[in-house]
Amino acid sequence: MKKIWHLVLTGGPCAGKTTAINTIEKKLTQKGYAVLIVPETATELIINGVRPFGDCLSMLDFQRILYQKQLHKESLYLKVANLLPSDKVIILYDRGMLDNKSYVSDEEFALLLKELNLSETTVRDKYDAVFHLVTAANGAEEFYTLANNAARMETIEEARALDNQCIRNWTGHTHLRVIDNSTDFDRKINRLMAEIYATIGDPVPIETERKYLIEKPDLSTLKEHVHITVVDIVQTYLIPTDTNIERRIRQRGSNGDFSYYLTQKKQIDSIKRVEIEDKISQNEYLALLSDADTNLKQIVKKRVCFVYKSQYFEVDLFEFSNDKAILEIELTNENSEINLPPFISFIQEVTEDFNYTNYNLAKTQTLDY
After folding, report:
1. pTM given for the model
2. CA neighbor of 247 nearest in space, from 255, 257, 258, 236
């Protein structure tokens, strides 16, 4: 069965995307994947003379052209992916559609989406994973340069601001990973490749998760420390077809606009698991609801997503709990150092406590043990 992955590579100016793209193509091709690369649309337009020119071509007009071109390219590359004989295809996007949100106001961005009959949820969730390379202007300033991209014109300060805004644009995605400059560049690329391998399940999709019981945070207080995105989730467990595999479906989105997923999970040990998640249509989701396990209740929660010190955290606010919540972080290495946010009130780590698995919470509907 053919599998097509949609992966976005993004980041601030001078983050190493060009080198990263070449490395990704080489390494994945060697592993037998067909790799298609969708070039950065803004750069294509700018170096060919299409750029904002004050009253002649406003930034909104430029973004309107950019979005139309981006959608056309993505449609064409998907057609090519389906025509290729390979059953393992990677479509690698040099920036995705949410990157351009940084250059217009929220009102203008909403207008663009409306004109294209799109929503922020559908634009964000159309990609399987987003990998953000942090600009050299943040942590590797001596390597920041404008020389290798004719479309780049940002100062170091502007590059940092754009980098932070880019992370904000993608916060809320189910699989956002931030690759910072805490190591030298070669190891930065190696960390990126490790995240990509984990995403596509090569050799197997093993995820490592740490989980913490926390005091339920006030969202207004969280906003004082980090940018947050809140996503509404309804999670339903299905009647198992294999005693070793947990099956569930999720409705995920906001403001009445949702994406739908089918997840199959097998636990390896207390912190590692094999997890396969596929995006499904609304009709498929509704049909699978008839297979709901009536011994388990639906889990209704708000997921608060944020990035702190280049690590992506998710806080689940369950409908059934007024004073407690769960904070989670997924890692590619179980020995990775975790920078726990100091503005969260931690009660205890519950990674290895079955009571705090979502499966058990569907039975008990309580965080009090």
Report:
1. 0.86
2. 236
